[in-house]
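Posting this for the archive.
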Amino acid sequence: MFGQTQAVDFGQGSKTLVKINQDGYASEYYLRDSISEHRMKIRHSTVLHDAVPYARHNVEITRTVFATSTVPEYVQKAYFVFEHLPSDVDAVKPFDGLADWAIAAADAALISLVGWES
């Protein structure tokens, strides 16, 4: 089980989000400061692929930056999902590879994605 807090780096230092809800197979973490609001949701479910049940895991981060006198409020969101057979002992390997690719070379792949490269 994840703890009561989650530390997440939003590019300007780590923010510690506090668990505000847990019900069944989901948790939500939250932090609000004077300029922004941060949420992290962790969810688990089961999905069917050709009538075969797969475990599904989803983590979502949302950052809302509040409006100022010169900039309107805006929202940034990122999430990942991975699915696997419940008996798969190597379930994290494809996601681990994807995460490493995304952040390698100073976030080069993520920067390319934001630039609409494919």
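The mean pLDDT is 94. Residues 89-118 form one domain.
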